Structures are given as C-alpha cells and as structure tokens.
Amino acid sequence: MEKVVYMKKCNLFKIIANLACLMTFLCLFSANAVAADHSSKSILTCIKNKKELVVGTSADYPPLEFIDNQNGTNKYVGVDIELAKEIAKDLGVKLVVKNMSFDSLLVALETRKVDMVISGLTPTPERKKSVDFSKIYYRPSGEYFLINKNDRAKYHSLISFKGQKIGAQNGSLQYQLVKKQMPKSHVKGLGKINTLVLALQSGKVSAVVMEELIAKAYAHNNPSLYCFKSDLKEPQAGNAIAVAKNQPDLLKEVNKTVDKVIAKKLVLTKFLPQAAKSMKKSTAQKDPFKYAPYFIKGIELTLVITIFSVLIGVILGTILALMRLSSHLALKIPAICYIELIRGTPQMVQILFVYFGIGAIIQNMSALLAGIIAIGLNSGAYVAEDIRSGINSLPVGQAEAARSLGLSKAATYRYVVIPQAIKNIWPALGNEFITLLKDSSLVSIIGVAETMYQTQLVQTSTYQGVFPLVVAMAIYFIMTFTLTRILSYMERRMNYHD
C-alpha cells in the first residue's frame, strides 16, 4: 500500500515538473516570436497609420516633465513634453503621453507599449545595448545634491557623505554614479523622484542626486530643501530620446526635429520659460485640497479595478477549487500548478508580466485592463483555496444525503455544497476583497491613474511629500471601512436565514 502511494506521489511530481518545463518553453518561445515580429515592423509606419505618437515618460521631474492642473484637467508639461509635441507636429500626428515609473520606461519601449521615451535619459553604453538614441538635445551642467537645508554645514562634498545613505532614481545615471564613485556611502534606489524627496525629508536618506534643473526646482519650491553642485565625475553626458532598436527611419525623423530645436535654441528660449511658468503656477496652488479632482479620479479607477478584479477572482477561484477537488489528474494538476505559481510569485511581478509580457502579444491591451487582469488572476488563486477549505470543512454526509435524494454531482455542488461553503468562508473572502482593494495601488507602477498614482502626482505638483499621503490613507480607510460594513451586513443576513 505504501509503495502504491509513493508511486502516485512520484508520478504527481513528474507531471508537475513536466508541466513547469512546458510552461517555461512556451514563455520563451512566445517571447522570441514577439521579438521577431517586432523587429520586422516599422514603428514610423505604425505611428503614421494610427495617426498618434505614444511617448513614455516619468512625469515627476520638473522642469523636464511634470503635471500641471489646467482648468481642472491634468496636463503634461515641461521641456521634454514640449520636445515631444514638436516631434508629433513634424510627423503630423497626435501626441499621446504615457506616464509610468522611470525604471519601466525602457521595458515599455522594447515591448512596444510606447513608440519612444523622452524622460531626461542619458545615452549610456549599457542602455545603447537595448535601445537606440537620438542626438543630444540638452546638456546639463552636472549632477546636484539635494539635501535638507538644516544640513548645509554638514554636507558639502562626496567625502562628507561617508557612511550616509544617498538616494537616486532606479535605473538612472545618477544611481550608477553614486554606486561607482561613492563606495563608502550607501545608495538607496526608488522609482519616483517625489518618493526620494519624501525619504530625504523624513531622514531616510541624507541626500538625493539629481540633474541641475530638477534639483533647483525642488529647492526653489520647498524652503526646507537646499541643493548644491556635486563633485561627481561623469562622462560628457546629456539628454537624448530613446527609440527601439533597428528603426532607422524613425530615428532619422526624430533627429530632424532635434536639429531644429538645437538650431533655434528652443530649449532655452521657449521650453524652459514655459516650464517655469507652469511651475510657478503649481507653487501658488500648494494646498493638496485644491487637487480634489486628482483624488476623485483615483477613487473612481480604484473602485473599477476592485469590482472587476473581484468578479474575476470569484469566478476563477470557484473553477480552480472544483478542479483541485476533482479526482481527475487532468483537472487537478493544472489547478495545483496555477495556485502554487501565483502564490509563489510577487503580485507586482505578475502585474508587470501581464502588462509587458502578455501585453507584448496583445498590443492593444491598456494598462487599466492589464492591471484588472493581473489582480483578478492573483485573487483567483487565494479565493480558490478559501473555497476549497470551506468545502472540505463540510460534513461528508451533506453531499451523500443530496446524492441519495437523486441530485447529480453538479447539482449537489450547486445547491448544497457551494452555498454552505460560501457561508463558512465569508469572513475569509471578506478579508481577500479588502486586501484586493488596497492591492489595487500596485498597478500605479504601470501607469494606471488610480488613487496611489494620483497621490504621487499631487506630491509632484505641490512639492509636498507627507500631506498627500495622509489624504490617500484617509481615502483608503474610508473605502475599506465602508466595504467592511457591507460585508458584515451580508454576513449577518446569511446567519439570519440559517
């Protein structure tokens, strides 16, 4: 008997291992197929056919790229945005700006989520291996340290930061400079500049390394901050536009616009003055409550993501639970593999995979749809285990009694088992729904404008780090508290009808 059980377990593990190998092969094959398909398409032709240019940026970098509230509407403004407008104008197409985390921009470019990236990018040798760059359109005078004004006497050079934590944006040139030239300091990388500034103000880092214009913008608009030029040594650098590899026709058109901008000195004579004007306007509107439309829009999208993700999670979870309880290995094994895979990988990785991985195959998949799918698929695995535990907790006699009355197996589950199981696991499902509502904030990494994303925009626009977070916490608390009360009411109703 023990030998039979052992052989069954061995066969089970073999099936799981083979399935995992097959999934890996399919992923690699699909990735290669997508890459080959992408390399054969002209992005410039696609831009002209769809009559729009999609530009990726990280709009937390004033005065290069940031957001201004104009008559209640969010507008992307800044030097880089004006340059993007010039390129779109010269191509005769509409400009569409996609705002996302800086360290996701080049991935978005390689997977064709954006047509080009304009976000204060420096064409380093490492980046040139994966993307091509235009000519340099702006050369900053060097890197600056942004510090708390109270620390002016304490920090003044690289040596003075010995043993301190230095903040820099993930994937940026500044991060590499600190890592290589400040070995006695500790570099701390974060995805957003406003998060780095918040870390600086809360004492998590001693300084943040930024380009000159950005550092001066934060120091000018926040009296508690101070910036000074660093003694970091860097190669002859500058900002350029990134485009996908092997797109010479698009790169040629981009360089035409860059040449025009340089010849007319538009960066200094037009783009910077316009950015300064927008920054001055934002500074005059520092009160986060004036940015209520930001938070309202974020709440709307958070609720949309939560509702549809719950639907996906419940439907998928019920199916997976029944598959896992099945005696047929063809149904049981895939359910086990899926649940273990989802529960064994971070949700943020899953969101990025759905958007950049699956989204590379389905080109028209929006960030919102990708976020809903990713969170719904994640929720399904946990809901499946909740439902399975609820079914297993029921006395076997319940199902046997139903079958003895002539009900089919499907009818027994539908009318007897599932309703009782749901009643037993309702508190656990409620916790999953509340967690899902809060986890919706993770989709901000791919540019979905939900509550957390909008909070980051307010931080950038007001140059304040803490207060917008307090508002966001209050919003999430109100939503979760309301949902808790609804779930408790439904639980009482179910117990009342016992």
From TrEMBL:
Keywords: Amino-acid transport, Cell membrane, Membrane, Signal, Transmembrane, Transmembrane helix, Transport. Residues 299-488 form the ABC transmembrane type-1 domain. One of its GO terms (molecular function) is transmembrane transporter activity. Pfam families: BPD_transp_1, SBP_bac_3. Gene3D superfamilies: MetI-like, Periplasmic binding protein-like II. It is a multi-pass membrane protein. PROSITE patterns: ABC_TM1. The keyword GTP-binding does not apply. Residues 1-35 form the signal peptide. GO terms for biological process: amino acid transport. It comes from the Bacteria. InterPro entries: AA_ABC_transptr_permease_3TM, ArtM/GltK/GlnP/TcyL/YhdX-like, MetI-like, MetI-like_sf, Solute-binding_3/MltF_N. Belongs to the binding-protein-dependent transport system permease family. HisMQ subfamily. It is found in: Cell membrane. The gene is glnP2. Its main location: membrane. One of its GO terms (cellular component) is ATP-binding cassette (ABC) transporter complex. This is ABC transporter, permease protein. The chain crosses the membrane at residues 301-323, 352-377, 466-487.
